[in-house]
């Protein structure tokens, strides 16, 4: 073997050693990196402030009610939420500017019928169209205030049933309505429905609130499917209520609401529709409660209609 061949062989051997060493280094680095991924990381989340959440409403011809709960941190134990859910020791005052009443707290089976909830009610105040109603809540060392109005109701012109051509059964469909919006900007509405025999109470539908930003002074048709009840998610046959059916008797409650009520309810529905979607636009729930609370104090100018589902 010539000297040149010996040098070449040694060079190739040295390259092999270097490459082997590099592979060992890469393997060691990857092992250390992957091992470090197994290290437990503890994140100390800051304690969020608990706030009073107000759910209150007043409608013409009816007495007001207010439910008070406390917000709970997202990662708090479920027992923390259930044990501190309802606020039962608050002072709740409602006024129409003339009569002022301290509302009485107790179990109520009408609001979430038939399930009981702790609510504050007043027998001295009855809702009237056009009036302003003031709310004061004193709880957990804080004083919360709000106000709302009961706008003049705008009734639906008509209601009818129309089958959905995409349904598997031609006896299934939606409730359609015709509305003529007044020639005044700023009207807003909310839709509720209830199927007798299948639902225990009137419930707001998905997308229940809308305003006249794009429909001012217009006359138009629109439709809704059945509302869903988080407490009773299925009908007696165990099927989701995606449609109204021929033979159903449906009550529709159509409400006119003021801007503060609309802003609160619309933001609440937007959050619910996102349902944790990571691609949804960031949004916050607005409130018409002043003083550091959450929720809403809402006035409703309501009209009621009953319709029996039948084909033309």
Characterise this structure:
Helices cover about 20% and strands about 40% of the residues. The strands form three sheets. An eight-stranded mixed β-sheet has the order 5-6-2-1-16-15-11-12, covered by helices on one side. It has a four-stranded antiparallel β-sheet with strand order 4-3-7-8, with no helix packed on it. The protein is globular and about 60 Å long. Mean pLDDT is about 85; it is low at about 1-35. The chain is of the alpha+beta class.
Low-confidence stretches: 1-36
Strand order of the largest sheet: 5-6-2-1-16-15-11-12
User: Topology as H/E string?
Assistant: HEEHEEEEEEEEEEEEEHE
Secondary structure tally: strands? 16
Structure class: alpha+beta
Average per-residue pLDDT, rounded, comes to: 83
The biggest beta sheet reads:
8 strands, mixed
- In DSSP terms (H or I, runs of 4 or more residues), the helix count works out at 3
Shape assignment: globular
Rg, rounded, reads 30 Å
Distance between the termini: 105 Å
């Amino acid at each position: 073997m010539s000297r040149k061949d010996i040098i070449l062989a040694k060079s190739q051997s040295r390259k092999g050693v270097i490459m082997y060493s590099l592979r060992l280094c890469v393997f060691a680095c990857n092992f250390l990196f992957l091992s470090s991924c197994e290290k437990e990381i503890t994140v100390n989340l800051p304690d969020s402030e608990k706030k009073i959440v107000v759910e209150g409403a007043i409608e013409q011809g009816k007495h007001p009610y207010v439910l008070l709960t406390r917000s709970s941190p997202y990662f708090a134990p479920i027992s923390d939420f259930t044990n501190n859910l309802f606020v039962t020791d608050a002072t709740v005052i409602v006024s129409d500017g003339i009569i002022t009443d301290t509302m009485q707290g107790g179990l109520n089976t009408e609001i979430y019928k038939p399930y009981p909830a702790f609510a504050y009610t007043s027998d001295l105040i009855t809702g009237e169209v056009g009036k302003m109603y003031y709310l004061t809540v004193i709880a957990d060392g804080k004083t919360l205030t709000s106000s709302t109005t009961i706008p003049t109701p705008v009734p639906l012109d008509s209601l009818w049933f129309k089958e959905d051509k995409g349904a598997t059964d031609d006896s299934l469909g939606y409730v359609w309505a015709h509305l003529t919006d007044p020639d005044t900007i700023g009207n807003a509405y909310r839709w509720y429905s209830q199927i007798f025999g299948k639902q225990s109470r009137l419930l707001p539908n998905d997308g229940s609130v809308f305003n006249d930003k794009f429909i001012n002074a217009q006359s138009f048709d629109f439709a809704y499917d059945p509302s869903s009840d988080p407490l009773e998610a299925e009908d007696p046959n165990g099927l989701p209520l995606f449609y109204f059916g021929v033979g159903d008797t449906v009550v529709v409650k159509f409400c006119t609401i003021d801007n503060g009520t609309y802003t609160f309810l619309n933001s609440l529905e937007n959050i619910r529709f996102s349902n944790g979607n990571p691609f949804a636009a960031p949004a916050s729930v607005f409130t018409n409660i002043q003083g550091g609370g959450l929720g809403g104090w809402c006035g409703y100018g309501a009209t009621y209609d009953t319709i029996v589902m039948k084909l033309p």
